[in-house]
Design brief:
The complex is a heterodimer of chains A (about 325) and B (about 725). With about 325 residues, chain A is an alpha+beta fold. Chain A is about 30% helix and about 20% strand. In chain A, strands 4-5-8-6-7 form a five-stranded antiparallel beta sheet. In chain A, strands 9-10-11-12 form a four-stranded antiparallel beta sheet, with helices on both faces. By secondary structure, chain B is an alpha+beta fold. Chain B has three domains: about 160 residues, Aldehyde Oxidoreductase, domain 4, CATH 3.30.365.10; about 180 residues, 2-Layer Sandwich (Aldehyde Oxidoreductase, domain 4), CATH 3.30.365.10; about 300 residues, Aldehyde oxidase/xanthine dehydrogenase, molybdopterin binding domain (Aldehyde Oxidoreductase, domain 4). Chain B is about 25% helix and about 25% strand. Classes of the chains: A alpha+beta (about 325), B alpha+beta (about 725).
């Protein structure tokens, strides 16, 4: 592990200012410290924000929920409002990591998890995300974990978060404080960037930006769930996950909000697939059509072709379940 | 008796011992669920594992890995690393271990850091004042390597195949038997590489006092390990003192010494200070032992009643060059079932990948798993209940050489397990919500053996007891069972017994491995105690057989004497020695069992969850019902892992292990393991050893995966022949959603 300076932030301005100078923000450290030990990340300085007053979960004026960036995954999953009004989020959190990790991991940190691509972690291999311009070892290598949607010929790594997938389906907004002191709000839909030719740039965050909260809009109508499919029953990243919300309008689908994990470089949503559901009867044909649209551009690698049928099946089963519950 | 008496008791196992002496004892602690004496230390974090007792002034070393699969190391840019804060030395050279020593090697493995044979081979050590500094230096050390031609795909069509004549056997005409069979199976099964996955990573702390080396290590077999260290360093074994009082799991990965131990010793000598070298999880995965992947062709021929007329089992495994070990896949096939026509073979190919060696029941763990899937396929083909099929195929004698079995308990285990599991009323081809539910079973078998083992037992005048041997406790319960054996024999309560293990200066034991530790070390303690009993009997003027020892009181005829009075003021010390003898060859010795599992297969995703699992096992006398059960639970858990999740993934381009951590190498977590139940079937095997006990450490994994895989077939009709049964291997066979 490369030695580094440690700075304890006194307030958000201090944290942002240090980050603007190049310090990497640390909260739970459940991912960052591992990456530093492996020297996948080698910051010269860390700015520790864990003593800042960013741990609240509070109702917003418009009926939503403001989640402080330091709220732990465990606390967020257990929060009564989250459990009742945003159950997919609670389910997603509990589907992630382990009890010990959820006690440490924070909301903002969870959004910024790095990929679990095998080659990203092995510094002796080329990786455009870790070392831009070196190439991608995964492309022709072991690709069970990798993306079938949204990848580029520079990178096919997936985003590992469960929480972010649910937040994507819930239309969450990220609250960001810049080192200028200015606060801006970025919808999660705009927060992540596709790899393209710059897989090392994963979000719209700029140097000196500090995530201070994630804001959920007022609870939406309908029934929701989070389904995670994985290689073992716990402590494994999603092969595919589906965060879904369905509201019925009579015997037709009124609203559909569906996000996917494990298959793309970011929590994935497909507006066309959702549009193909709305206004349609809740039938297998409708669900299958949405799946066809979602997966039309799927580009599996050597080892992950199974994710196409797996995603399709999981989506159809999720929609069947949600529509059934929403109708009753 | 007022003189210090040293009495050896040397027994060669040349004849069966039908006396069952331990059944005559009075203390009543052997076979109970007695807690481990070392348990409180372990749960309070105060047991000193290899890396948990730091001598003053200790420096930290971190190994540097080769990053090409074959080639030469032409140079290392040491100067840049030596300039980093805290870095004291960069070492490499001819004495570095290329890979670990194989179990019981008793000599150095291939050495040298100049030639590279696999990605992950340790080629240098960076020593610094802190672990972090050393790790940083290791990360930054630039290696000048000239890549050579590597073989990284063991399945390549043009790969050279070695066939050791001793591993090939043929009887009758299997081709004809297959042709004439009423029912037959001819399938190929594959298993991936497995890592030992002990919780404690390999680590060593070494220091020198003049020419004397002391090394705290995580090691399973000190008697061999000290010679391996001495040979690796080119020093006299009498100058090597190894300490391994607590070992956080071995699973074969610590049978022989591995690169960190020699690197620590070299660095400590060079720097004149204690040096620790602890491997990271990735280093353990890359630079200690892997179980080879296997490709197994199995042919079964049976008559109309399901009685086997032929068995073919030909396996291909891989290994690094200059290593002899080949995963003994077919080890149990020759004697498990009937069938006059046989072809059994083992093929070896050479690859540039992590050294292959003993990992978690080498041989049967993967070989029996494939064979037991094939047996299930035969049961389905023949329409015969799988338990009944196995019953019909239990041989009278070892079919390969007509030797009698020392004891045969497969039928008893099958019956006991079927009853305990409720096989007749099992869930089969049914559904529970989104889960397709089915049941499966498999047989368990493991060869049984002992190794030469010495232990010293001292009965002190105050009635306390000291047991000393270089035997290790790798989490298996050695401290408990040796305490129980001696306490039972000499009538001493466990609180008055001290068991000292894991010190190479103590009498040499067989060590832990191959399920022989309890039988071997236990027998040596038994023999020493028996000798002490004889001495007590002599003093009391009675036959040893008439002597009752309980709670510190000796009873003979109508006399009751406290042991302290019998002894006078001198301790009684005896060294017991057990040696394998003619019983190893005269009979076929094995442990047997049966596994039963109920699984659910998710109808949408193909995810598999084991819903319940049972094992019935016969392993001779059970020495501690709790630790023996725990061994079986661990084996069954690893069986679930083998069936469903565990696989070392090697990049075919350069043989690089890509999933060298527990995030991506999936051993089962709690949520994968349902309630497991274990029964022991009564057995006393007089041919095994004077305790009539047999190995239990590995039996629980041998064939365990097959019951899960067979249950998957029962649940959803998908026959998984390529392990593990991850969801992608099931998905295609599931009905449309």
């Amino acid at each position: 592990m490369k030695s580094f300076d440690y700075i304890r932030a006194t307030d958000t301005g201090h944290a942002s200012a240090e980050a603007a100078e190049g310090a990497v923000i640390i909260a739970g450290g459940t991912n960052l410290l591992d990456l530093m030990k492996l020297e996948v990340m080698t910051p010269d300085a860390l700015v520790d924000i864990t003593r800042l007053d960013l741990k609240q979960i509070a109702a917003t004026d418009d009926g939503g929920l403001r989640i402080g960036t330091l709220v732990t995954n465990a606390d967020l999953a257990a929060h009564m409002t989250v459990r009742t009004d945003y159950p997919m989020l609670s389910q997603a959190l509990l589907a992630g990591a382990s009890g010990q990790l959820r006690n440490k991991a924070t909301t903002g940190g969870n959004l910024l998890q790095r990929t679990r691509c095998y080659y990203f972690y092995d510094t002796a291999t080329p990786c455009n995300k870790r070392a831009p311009g070196t190439g991608c070892a995964a492309m022709e290598g072991a690709t069970r974990l990798h993306a079938i949607l949204g990848g580029s010929d520079q990178c096919i790594a997936t985003h590992p978060s469960d929480m972010a997938v649910a937040m994507r389906a819930l239309d969450a907004v990220v609250e960001i404080e810049a080192s200028t002191g200015e606060t801006r709000h970025v919808p999660l839909s705009d927060f992540y960037l596709l790899p393209g030719d710059t897989p090392q740039i994963e979000t719209v965050l700029r140097r000196g930006d500090l995530i201070t909260a994630v804001i959920l809009p007022a609870p939406a109508q309908g029934v929701q769930s989070y389904t995670k499919v994985r290689d073992r029953a716990s402590y494994a990243f999603a092969m595919v996950s589906v965060a879904g919300r369905i509201a019925m309008d009579g015997d037709r689908i009124g609203q559909a909000s569906i996000a996917f994990g494990g298959i793309a470089p970011q929590p994935w949503r497909d507006a066309d697939a959702e549009a193909a559901l709305v206004g349609q009867p809740a039938t297998r044909e409708t669900f299958a059509r949405a799946a066809d649209i979602l997966l039309a551009d799927a580009k599996p690698a050597k080892d992950n072709a199974f994710k196409v049928p797996l995603t399709r099946r999981t989506l159809i089963a999720t929609l069947t379940d949600l529509c059934g519950k929403a109708a009753s | 008796m007022n003189t210090h008496t040293k009495m050896d008791a040397h027994h060669v196992m040349d004849a069966p011992d039908h006396r069952n002496r331990l059944d005559d004892m009075a203390q009543g602690i052997l076979g109970t669920t007695m807690d481990r004496p070392d348990g409180p230390l372990k749960v309070t974090g105060t047991a000193t594992y290899a890396h948990e007792d730091h001598p003053a002034g200790m420096l930290h070393g971190v190994l540097v890995r080769a990053t090409v699969p074959r080639g030469t190391l032409d140079g290392t840019h040491d100067a840049a690393v030596l300039a980093l804060p805290g870095v004291r030395r960069v070492l490499h050279g001819d004495r570095f271990l290329r890979n670990p020593a194989q179990g019981t090697a008793n000599e150095a493995p291939v050495q040298g850091s100049r030639e590279i044979f696999y990605v992950g081979q340790p080629v240098a050590l960076v020593v610094a004042e802190t672990f972090e500094q050393a790790r940083h230096g290791a990360q930054r050390l630039v290696l000048q390597m000239t890549p050579g031609d590597a073989v990284t795909d063991p399945t390549a069509d043009d790969i050279a195949v070695e066939r050791d004549p001793d591993e090939q056997s043929s009887m009758g005409d299997l081709d004809k038997a297959m042709k004439d069979a009423a029912f037959s199976v001819d399938q190929t099964y594959t298993t991936p590489g497995h890592t030992s996955a002990a919780m404690e990573p390999h680590a060593a702390v070494a220091w020198w006092d003049g020419d004397k080396l002391t090394i705290r290590a995580s090691a399973q077999m000190l008697k061999y390990n000290k010679n391996e260290i001495a040979d690796s360093l080119g020093i006299d074994v009498r100058d090597v003192h190894m300490l391994a009082p607590y070992v956080g799991g071995g699973f074969g990965g610590k049978l022989g010494i591995s690169p960190e131990a020699v690197a620590a010793a070299l660095a400590a000598r060079d720097l004149g200070a204690p040096v620790s070298v602890a491997m990271t999880r990735r280093q353990v995965s890359e630079a200690t032992m892997r179980r080879s992947e296997t490709v197994q062709q199995i042919r079964l021929a049976a008559d109309a009643d399901g009685v086997l007329t032929g068995i073919g089992h030909v396996a291909r495994v891989s290994q690094l060059e200059d290593e002899d070990y080949a995963e003994p896949v077919t080890q149990a096939t020759p004697f498990l079932y009937r069938g006059k026509n046989r072809e059994i073979g083992l093929e070896l190919v050479r690859v540039n990948a992590t050294c292959a060696g003993s990992v978690r029941a080498p041989g049967e763990a993967v070989g029996l798993t494939a064979l037991e899937i094939a047996m299930d396929e035969l049961a389905v083909a023949a329409g015969i209940d799988p338990v009944e099929l196995r019953r019909r195929n239990i041989p009278e004698v070892d079919p390969s050489d007509d030797k009698p079995f020392s004891s045969h308990t497969l039928e008893a285990a099958l019956d006991d397990g079927a009853k305990a599991f409720g096989w007749d009323g099992r869930k089969t081809k049914t559904t529970d919500g989104d889960w397709l539910v089915g049941s499966g079973m498999s047989s368990a078998v493991r060869v049984n053996m002992i190794g030469e083992s010495h232990a010293r037992v001292t009965l002190n005048p105050d009635g306390t007891l000291l047991i000393e041997t270089d035997m290790t406790d790798v989490g298996t319960g050695t401290y408990a069972i040796l305490t129980q054996i001696a306490g039972e024999m000499l009538g001493v309560t466990p609180d008055r017994i001290t068991t000292v293990l894991g010190d190479s200066d103590l009498p040499e034991s067989a060590g832990s491995g191959g399920s022989w530790g309890a039988s071997s070390a236990g027998s040596s303690v038994f023999l020493a105690c028996e000798r002490i009993r004889q001495e007590i009997a002599k003093t009391l003027d009675c036959d040893e057989g008439d002597l009752t020892l309980k709670d510190g009181i000796a009873t003979a005829a109508n006399r009751q004497v406290p042991l302290a009075q019998v002894l006078g003021d001198a301790p009684l010390t005896s060294t017991g020695v057990i040696e394998p003898g003619k019983t190893s060859e005269a009979v076929r010795q094995a442990t047997f069992g049966a596994f039963f599992a109920e699984v659910g297969v998710h109808r949408v995703t193909g995810e598999v969850r084991v819903r319940r699992m049972h094992g019935s096992f016969a392993a001779g006398r059970i020495l501690n019902a709790k630790t023996a059960r725990s061994q079986c639970l661990g084996g069954m858990t690893f069986g679930i892992g083998m069936a469903l999740t565990e696989a070392m993934i090697f990049d075919p381009r350069d043989g690089r292990l890509v999933n060298g951590d527990f995030g991506e190498y999936h051993i089962p977590v709690n949520a994968d393991v349902p309630q497991l139940t274990v029964n022991f079937v009564h057995e006393r095997d007089p041919w095994a050893n004077p305790m009539q006990a047999k190995g239990i450490g590995e039996l629980g994994i041998c064939g365990a995966g097959a019951c899960v895989l067979n249950a998957i077939h029962d649940a959803c009709g998908v026959r998984v022949r390529d392990l593990p049964a991850t969801l992608d291997r099931i998905l295609d066979g599931l009905p449309e959603v």
